[in-house]
Design brief:
The structure holds two protein chains of two kinds. Chain A has helices spanning 24-33, 81-86, 94-98, 105-120, 126-154, 160-180, 202-224, 228-234, 242-247, 253-257, 264-267, 288-312, 366-370, 374-378, 383-393, 397-401; strands spanning 2-6, 12-16, 41-45, 57-63, 66-73, 189-190, 193-194, 333-341, 344-352, 360-364. By secondary structure, chain A is of the alpha+beta class. In chain A, strands 3-4-5 form a three-stranded antiparallel β-sheet. A three-stranded antiparallel β-sheet of chain A has the order 8-9-10. In chain A, strands 1-2 form a two-stranded antiparallel ribbon. By secondary structure, chain B is an alpha/beta fold. Chain B is flat. The chains are: A alpha+beta, B alpha/beta. At the A-B interface, helix 4, helix 9, strand 8, strand 9 and strand 10 of A face strand 3 and helix 3 of B.
């Protein structure tokens, strides 16, 4: 099987891959093969651009208004998180994981704690498991709400939807602040449990936020979901087929919008997700609108987990008494642990050589891998659509660049 | 899902000449992995992806690992004659291991919802034989991750469609995730035309007077 790629000189050169499958390589060949009249224009979108969600660049080649080539360029925020983690103790990396995807610090903490628990064979007490799914689902609410706001901002709905979203986000951040002392950099999970117990009155405050959330979602969806402009800008834009989505390793709402039923909360059933019934919303077109809708519906499902979990949470210790904070040295070996974060599969791959520092510490960042299909989403579409497509991927540059 | 031994025997039967080794993992996670030689890696990976019983259609994670040259010590029980009596004595046997780089692939199946099967490729050494087979033509998800491994570890991938640096800038020379990487004293320093001018002006400075 062969696929064409464009060389720097502009000529089309044919490279042979053993088996490219039904992937983007073929599609790129089709688009470049289209006969064109004018000159191609190269544009660097970013790195300083309000719609790139951070310091991120897209090198775009345009034929008129149509995109014929797009290369994402990143690394501006790279600080070699993995190397830092290899030079510090296991626990020492916990605050650094907050800074990966700084919207979802609690799920980052959980993913790392889960991997270390797999590596060292620690058990998590019942109450801590409840705290973990409650905070993780609150994080999912927060992330999806904000993403809807940012997506609308990218489409030119300046201010209003984003401010509505941020108003709700602040209520959840208040909960996180009273829980951990910090709004965004929570540093709350520990290996074998959580750092401290819930403060008095926290559950009631959380119940209040959760009870009021459906009202906000109704309001938000009345404003947005049926909106004619939103539908015109998003339907049929940035399509990804189910086949390509699986092959390119998309995860999270990006994958499920393409109609692939794969949610780690069901597949791995980590934590205590198996106890609560919830459904997985799936899209059918794989376009930007489906991604938006999948996130909206996912929030409603999160509420279905939160409501009973907040009632059922038992009393008890929040950390495994066997878990040591100081002098923590797991046996030599390796473990890969993963959870369904708001953006997709967040995994940590750890290799221990028996010393206090991990020998290898690898983050599997969902934002980075979801960007693989950015070019496939944007080819043949206009620049304005590329902005919307990028917005729907839901990237956080702290995680992409690490 | 089948056990790793069953996968190994089936893969060896399907891919002629392939030799797979099971790497044991002693941690409680018990995630054992398959080591495959570079020349058979593509065929074995294709088998894992396309086999109807496995259907590992999703390559989740690609990571590089660096192992330096090391001296491994092993405790071995040896029979020895001590003071005329034969005894079993523990002896420490030391072996030298040459360093190598590894690429680890975590494979899952989205259609059959199982996994992980962990596949490893190993390079010959850390300096000149550092190429492995790219699995990007099989799984697009490896595209950026293999670029990252190339960037940070300096492992080359045969058949990768777009092997460039991804996180470090293009002019960067070294591979920072290697265990023996030395940080330069000053990242920001770049020779500028100004330096040449400064050097030239030195010729015009008055010679220092030596006091008698």
């Amino acid at each position: 099987m062969s696929a064409a790629t464009e060389t720097s000189a502009g000529a089309v050169q044919t490279l042979t891959f053993p088996d490219a499958g039904q992937t983007g390589f073929q599609r790129r060949a089709e688009v470049i093969g289209v006969g064109r009249e004018g000159e191609l224009l190269e544009v660097a979108m970013g790195p300083q651009h309000p719609s790139t969600h951070g310091v991120f660049r897209m090198d775009v080649v345009l034929d008129g208004e149509t995109i014929v080539k797009l290369k994402p360029v990143f690394g501006y925020l790279h600080r070699n998180h993995e190397k830092i983690a290899e030079n510090t103790s296991y626990l020492g990396s916990m605050p650094y994981t907050d800074r990966l995807d700084y919207f979802c610090s609690l799920t980052n903490n959980w993913a790392y704690a889960l991997s270390v628990e797999k590596l060292a064979g620690l058990q998590v007490p019942e109450r801590a498991e409840y705290i973990r799914i409650i905070t993780a689902e609150l994080t999912r609410l927060l992330n999806h709400t904000c993403l809807a706001g940012f997506l609308l901002q990218d489409m030119g709905a300046l201010g209003t939807p984003l401010m509505y979203a941020f108003r709700e986000r602040e209520k959840i951040l208040d909960l996180f602040e009273s829980l951990s002392g910090a709004r965004m950099m929570c540093n709350y999970m520990r290996f074998g449990g959580c750092r401290c117990d819930l403060p008095p009155g926290w559950l009631d405050a959380a119940k209040k936020v959760v009870a009021e959330y459906p009202k906000f979602l109704d309001e938000f969806e009345t404003l947005l979901s049926g909106n004619e402009i939103l539908m015109a800008r998003t339907q049929g834009v940035g399509k990804v087929s189910a086949e390509l989505a699986v092959n390119a390793g998309l995860t999270g709402p990006m994958l499920r919008a393409s109609g692939v039923d794969y949610d780690l909360r069901k597949v791995d059933a980590y934590g205590i997700y198996a106890r609560y019934p919830f459904r997985i919303p799936l899209g059918s077109h794989g376009d930007v609108y489906d991604r938006y809708m999948v996130r909206m519906l996912e929030m409603r499902e999160s509420l279905k987990i939160l409501e009973p979990a907040l009632k059922d949470i038992p009393e008890g210790p929040v950390v495994d008494p066997k878990a040591k904070l100081r002098g923590f040295r797991p046996k030599a070996g390796e473990a890969y642990g993963r959870i369904e974060s708001a953006k997709g599969e967040l995994g940590f791959y750890l290799i221990s050589d028996g010393s206090p520092n991990p020998y290898r510490y690898r983050v599997r960042p969902p934002s980075l891998i979801n960007l693989t299909v950015l070019e496939d989403m944007c080819l043949g579409q206009t620049v304005a659509d590329a902005i919307v497509s990028l917005g729907s991927v839901d990237i956080v540059l702290g995680e992409v660049d690490r | 899902m089948e056990t790793l031994e069953q996968i190994k025997t089936r893969a060896e039967r399907v891919v002629p000449g392939a030799q797979l080794t099971i790497i044991k993992n002693d941690s409680p996670s018990a995630q054992h992995s398959l080591l495959v030689a570079v020349e058979h890696a593509f065929a074995v990976a294709k088998f894992l992806r396309d086999d109807p019983a496995l259907r590992l259609d999703y390559c989740s994670n690609v990571s590089g690992v660096d192992f330096l040259d090391a001296e491994l010590s092993e405790k071995v029980k040896v029979k020895k004659v001590v003071d005329g009596v034969e005894k079993e004595v523990e002896e420490v046997r030391k072996t030298k291991r040459a360093g190598y780089l590894e690429v680890v692939y975590h494979l899952y199946s989205m259609s059959l919802k199982h996994g992980p099967v962990i596949l490893r490729q190993r390079t010959g050494n850390r300096s000149d034989t550092v190429a492995v087979m790219s699995l990007t033509p099989l799984w697009r998800s490896a595209e950026f991750q293999e670029r990252e491994v190339f960037d940070l570890y300096g492992i080359h991938f045969y058949g990768h469609p777009d092997l460039r640096r991804i996180l470090m800038w293009d002019g960067f020379k070294d591979h920072p995730m290697r265990k023996d990487y030395q940080e330069p004293d000053d990242y920001e320093y770049e020779p500028t035309p100004h330096d040449d001018v400064c050097d030239k002006t030195k010729a015009h400075y008055p010679k220092q007077e030596v006091k008698a």
